[in-house]
Specification:
Number of helices: 11
Number of domains: 2
Shape: globular
Largest sheet: 8 strands, mixed
Number of strands: 10
Structural class: alpha/beta
Strand content: 15-25%
Distance between the termini: 16 Å
Helix content: 40-55%
Oligomer: single chain
Radius of gyration: 19 Å
CATH topology of the largest domain: Spore Coat Polysaccharide Biosynthesis Protein SpsA, Chain A
């Protein structure tokens, strides 16, 4: 399993955080094939020799790809994956940290031995190796099948990634992982959750826009319905989804500071503008895949082949 992993990371103005992230990759040792870092049009210039503290074993595998225009995470990850040469992609946020090797090695072993698995989801951990008190890919303590992963802590087979065409760039960010994993399940590849607390993610408030994220949380539910729901289902669900999005924005006062209506209007305008592109990209999922998805959300069935 030596040199299988391409670590893919996007960073703009969180230079201190991404430096720590890169330093932590030394824990992977010979599992690490390369590190691809997208320098995503930072507003503040990066310091000269900013990665001096990164161990040479990581620094010698580091390839920095620069974008003069700031791109959304979906586009950025697709840009990195287009140049990656490893057989497995390790997705990390720039404020993620690898805590230990064993959990990553266990996920890599599953991807190499079980051809029905397309990706591995890990929990978001605190720096001392405990579960973080926010959203996780699965609410259980055993290896299980799950609906999706988070790109702050996930492994994805490169061949599966490219069969799917990568992340859907129309979504920009917010729930793009679930959309990817729905297509992955529909293609016949499962997502497995491993409860190993091997990756820390303490989201940095630096360079994050909570109101934009709230709008995208609501909007991308509408986008996914147009992209993937069979037409009879879409006709029944689109209006309720629009109303749910409005209710979510009204209630998300911690993210919107109560200024929800302009965000709703902007999201609806986005939908109207992007509707032709969404319709061209539309690929309805099989009914069986949709039923399987809902079943997993309720049961999180145990994955039988974990070590």
């Amino acid at each position: 399993m030596a040199s299988e992993i391409s670590a893919l990371i996007i960073c703009g103005d969180r230079l201190d955080e991404v430096t720590r992230c890169l330093e932590s990759l030394a824990k992977l040792g010979d599992l690490l094939h390369e590190v691809l870092l997208l320098k995503n049009a930072p507003k503040h210039p990066w310091r000269d020799n900013c990665f001096e503290s990164v161990p040479s074993g990581v620094r010698n595998r580091l390839n920095i790809i620069s974008s003069e225009k700031q791109v959304f995470p979906t586009t950025g990850r697709n840009m990195l994956a287009a140049q990656a040469t490893g057989s497995v992609y390790l997705f990390l946020d720039d404020d993620s940290l690898v805590l230990e090797r064993n959990g990553i090695e266990g996920g890599l072993n599953i991807l190499k031995t079980d051809t029905t698995v397309g990706s591995i989801a890990y929990p978001q951990s605190t720096e001392d190796g405990k579960l973080a008190p926010y959203m996780q890919p699965a609410p259980v303590e055993h290896p299980c099948f799950t609906c999706g992963f988070m790109t702050c802590a996930a492994l994805v087979r490169a061949d599966v990634y490219h069969k799917l065409g990568g992340f859907q760039e129309l979504l920009q960010m917010a729930h793009e992982e679930n959309e990817f994993c729905k297509r992955q399940w529909d293609l016949g590849f499962s997502v497995v959750y491993l409860p190993d607390t091997c990756i820390c993610h303490n989201p940095s408030p630096n360079a994050r826009n909570s109101s934009q994220r709230a709008k995208l949380n609501a909007r991308n539910g509408w986008y996914q319905a147009v992209l993937h729901e069979p037409l009879p289902l879409l006709c029944c669900t689109l209006l309720p989804r629009l109303l749910l999005g409005a209710r979510y924005l009204r209630q998300a006062k911690g993210w919107t500071e109560g200024n929800w209506f302009p965000l709703l209007s902007e999201g609806l305008q986005n939908l109207a503008t992007d509707l032709p592109a969404l319709w061209r990209a539309r690929k309805p999922l099989h009914w069986a895949s949709l039923r399987r998805w809902q079943q997993i959300k309720q049961d999180y069935p145990r994955y039988p082949n974990a070590a």
